[in-house]
């Protein structure tokens, strides 16, 4: 893949990934966002050393690549995105992509939609391990008016230590610890809290990327003694109300382990709707 192909590749992935039968979980559907990810976010191995394109008579018919994480010796596979009537090239393209993987990579991940039968057949043929099933939920801007009125309380220094304690207890060994979350806070990254009798009962950490109309609910947790009191729903409501103050954000999506029915029910109760069901596969190489 060459620099001059980025726009056409982003457009191709955007189109393919908007169809359930070709959908891959972490690749996105917005053309500009995909192009930005290819150019700016794939830093360990740049796209011109990690992505392949296939043309037939000048028409782009296939794209496959990987996003490398050299620190963790792993890579996420993008695709294969191949036009349905050209799927017979999938295995040969796959082998050429594997040849691009650096020696540091010892595991690869794939995240296809359950409706993406072609890729599901491919991972089965390649003897991937099915790690988990994931549910993608979405909340659209049109439903904001249905949210309850809740008091918004932003994290203050008074509750830093309690936030760190609750986060690190709830999410040990995750990608941001409590101190790192505090350091990340700015006008587009916020922690909202609920306090009862001077004690932190729960928190939610959210990030907005208004330039690309993106937003994410990264972490939220409620103290065990305070569960079952509606605090989780209030935290989600606060987060959604704030995220939709950014006019470019039209929807917010979440990825939840399909076995975590309590969390899925909570999200649906607040107003999230199920959008995709995905399978997470891994393979040691």
Concise description?
By secondary structure, the protein is α+β, with helices and mostly antiparallel strands. The protein is built from eight helices and ten strands.
Topology readout:
Blueprint: H1 6-17, H2 31-41, E1 51-56, E2 59-69, E3 74-82, H3 90-100, E4 107-110, H4 117-125, E5 129-140, H5 160-170, H6 178-184, E6 189-196, E7 199-209, E8 214-222, H7 231-243, E9 251-257, H8 261-270, E10 273-284
Parallel strand pairs: 3-4
Antiparallel strand pairs: 1-2, 2-3, 4-10, 5-9, 5-10, 6-7, 7-8
Helix pairs in contact: 1-2, 7-8
Explain the overall architecture.
With 285 residues, the chain is α+β, with helices and mostly antiparallel strands. The chain folds into two domains: 3-127, Aminopeptidase, CATH 3.40.630; 139-278, Gcn5-related N-acetyltransferase (GNAT) (Aminopeptidase), CATH 3.40.630.30. Helices cover 29% and strands 31% of the residues. The chain has eight helices and ten strands. The chain has helices at 6-17, 31-41, 90-100, 117-125, 160-170, 178-184, 231-243, 261-270, and strands at residues 51-56, 59-69, 74-82, 107-110, 129-140, 189-196, 199-209, 214-222, 251-257, 273-284. The chain has a seven-stranded mixed sheet, sandwiched between helices. A three-stranded antiparallel sheet has the order 6-7-8, with helices on both faces. Strand 3 (74-82), helix 3 and strand 4 (107-110) form a beta-alpha-beta unit. Helix 1 (6-17) crosses helix 2 and helix 7 packs across helix 8 (261-270). The radius of gyration is 21 Å and the shape is elongated. The mean pLDDT is 94.
């Amino acid at each position: 893949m060459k620099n001059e192909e980025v726009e056409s590749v982003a457009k191709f992935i955007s189109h393919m990934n908007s169809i359930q039968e070709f959908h891959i979980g972490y690749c996105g559907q917005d053309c500009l966002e995909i192009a930005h990810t290819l150019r700016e976010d794939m830093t360990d191995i740049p796209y011109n050393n990690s992505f392949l394109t296939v043309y037939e008579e000048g028409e782009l018919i296939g794209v496959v690549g990987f996003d490398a994480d050299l620190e963790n010796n792993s890579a996420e596979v993008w695709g294969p995105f191949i036009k349905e009537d050209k799927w017979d090239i999938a295995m040969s393209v796959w082998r050429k992509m594997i040849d691009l993987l650096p020696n540091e990579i010892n595991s690869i991940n794939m995240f296809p939609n359950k409706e993406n039968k072609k890729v599901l057949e491919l991972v089965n043929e390649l003897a991937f391990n099915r790690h988990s099933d994931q549910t993608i939920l979405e909340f659209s801007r049109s439903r904001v008016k249905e949210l309850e009125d809740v008091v918004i309380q932003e994290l203050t220094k008074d509750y830093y230590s309690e936030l760190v304690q609750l986060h690190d207890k709830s999410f040990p060994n995750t990608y941001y610890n409590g101190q790192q979350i505090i350091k990340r806070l700015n006008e587009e990254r916020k922690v909202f809290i609920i306090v009862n009798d001077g004690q932190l009962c729960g928190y939610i950490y959210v990030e907005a990327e208004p330039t690309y109309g993106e937003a994410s609910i990264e972490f939220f947790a409620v103290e065990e003694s305070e569960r079952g009191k509606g605090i989780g729903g209030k935290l989600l409501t606060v987060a959604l109300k704030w995220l939709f103050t950014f006019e470019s954000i039209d929807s917010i999506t979440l990825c939840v382990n399909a076995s975590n029915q309590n969390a899925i029910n909570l999200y649906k109760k607040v107003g999230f709707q199920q959008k995709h069901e995905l399978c997470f596969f891994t393979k040691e190489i």
